[in-house]
Write a structure and sequence with these properties.
Blueprint: E1 2-3, H1 5-13, E2 15-16, E3 20-24, H2 25-31, H3 34-39, E4 46-47, E5 64-68, E6 75-76, E7 81-85, E8 89-90, E9 96-97, E10 100-103, E11 108-109, E12 115-119
Parallel strand pairs: 1-4
Antiparallel strand pairs: 2-3, 5-12, 6-11, 7-10, 8-9
């Protein structure tokens, strides 16, 4: 699972409700995951800063969460052209450069449920109940 940095920081630093004030949201998720109970595998939760600006403007909050199954049969990289090396050339007196060409495409999703995402996972600041919108005049 990939989350924006601010969402992950919020989960690590915020207590889980009134019933468990000594346990953070992340600690609660780590101990009570349904995924681990069913499969016996640990859920990997990582941050990816590029997700912070990917939510749509209409939703309060921001950022997106992306989850995928870690299985080679679910997602495959698409390479329409194999990697090719071009002839070596001398870039300077002691330098030789070996250029290469490769084309890649988006991942090929083999199973419809292999990837899921959610929007507005970054918490709002307390002073902003709704995000401000820029007015567009025609």
């Amino acid at each position: 699972m990939l989350l924006p940095d601010t969402a992950l920081d919020y989960m690590v630093g915020t207590p889980y409700g009134v019933t468990k004030p000594n346990q953070t949201i992340m600690q609660y998720i780590a101990t009570n995951k349904e995924y681990t109970r069913r499969t016996g595998k640990q859920l990997k939760i990582r941050s990816l800063e590029e997700l912070k600006n990917k939510a749509s403007a209409d939703i309060p909050g921001g950022g997106r969460a992306v989850a995928s199954r870690y299985d080679a049969n679910m997602l495959k990289p698409w390479m329409p052209m194999p990697y090719r090396f071009l002839p070596v050339y001398q870039d300077g007196l002691p330098n030789f450069t070996v250029p290469g060409i490769a084309r890649t495409g988006p991942p090929d999703v083999m199973c419809p449920n292999a990837i899921s995402y959610g929007g507005a996972v970054t918490p709002l600041r307390p002073d902003r109940a709704r995000p401000e919108r820029d007015e567009v005049r025609l």
